[in-house]
TrEMBL record:
Pathway listed: Carbohydrate degradation; glycolysis; pyruvate from D-glyceraldehyde 3-phosphate: step 2/5
GO cellular component, one term: cytosol
Binding site for substrate: D19, F20, N21, R35, H58, L59, G60, R61, R117, R150
Protein name listed in UniProt: Phosphoglycerate kinase
Subunit structure: Monomer.
Subcellular location: Cytoplasm
Amino acid sequence: MKTIDDYNFEDKKALIRVDFNVPLDGDFNVTDTSRIDAATPSILKVLEDGGSAVLMSHLGRPKGKVNPDMSLSHICEKVSEIIGVQVKFASDCVGDVADTAVSELQSGEVLLLENLRFYSEEESGDEAFAEALSKHGDIYVNDAFGTAHRAHASTTIVANYFSGNKCFGYLLAKEIKAIEKVMQTGEKPITAILGGAKVSSKITIIENILDKVDNLIIGGGMTYTFVKAQGGKVGDSICEDDKMELALDILKQASEKGVKVHLPVDVLAADAFDNSANTQFMDVNEIPDGWQGLDAGPQTMENFKQVILDSKTILWNGPVGVFEMENFAKGTIAVGNAIDEATQNGAFSLVGGGDSVAAVKQFGFEEKVSYVSTGGGAMLESLEGRTLPGIAAILG
Ligand code: AMP
């Protein structure tokens, strides 16, 4: 696996695909700089070698049309401030404007190109557009994990024009290693904690990880499809009746593969989907009509904690309760605390995919786990066992 460390960029132009799809407020101020921070080490490495960096990214969903509200010019000052170099801006990512700006770029300088998605050719993976982009650099660096699951022009197709001169940036390399550590080289026992709302959105992940893990903790809204499928009463809890057979099949497969499945035994149920609803702890199998399970109960939290503390490798995807409401966040916090403790005891813990990162950030677990993935969709697809096109394009 070639990374940016395998190259010396002296007098070279690095064409770097970054993920600067950052949130902006009404005055176009960047409200969360994490993605810029995450790309900074790769940019600095190129500059320190004595090279120059041409940065390309998308911002928002302009759907192939120029939209001034989604111009990357809004973030140019913030990027300059973070990397400590005044960043130049090209008001187009291809054509004369871009070509001239690139040709005038000197070693030690950074150029940010305008939003790639102002062209529909970006998302369609157009060859000619990718070729035009490829003219902007001597070496292609992909450092955008958040879009690595897309076969777009700048993330995948462009790499075809850099045979032998393409590599992963630091961020993307870190993401790949973190996934490998769980899915391929993880120290046993390996535990996956899957929560979130629905079985249907996690099914491919579950099927893929049954071959890799020793323990599967199932929590959150998914619980009730499993419970009802086994004959329990789930009341008004979220439940996918059409997935009950699938749930039974997963349990059968798990038992055949020697994977221990841990489901909640008790829950905090409420008489409405509301933070101020009346609540009661209940047996997970005996939730009456008019009540719904919205968080893990105390015995469940204790059971999950023991499994997590006994693990050497931990993957966490999805909250185990409706964490957005304070009264139903305790289960998710308990899982986070247990992962924190296991990590302190030497386990490797990876959090990522979909909404998990929001929960982790909200409760301050970001610093306590080994790795928090920056790519929601890309991480989900990796956990499903798919090869991401952006990664394959560098390896190929
Ligand atoms: P996902 O994006 O699939 O990881 O789902 C995350 C969502 O699942 C969060 O918004 C949670 O509020 C929701 N969730 C977790 N537990 C439950 C539950 N018991 N009932 C309904 N929704 C839940």
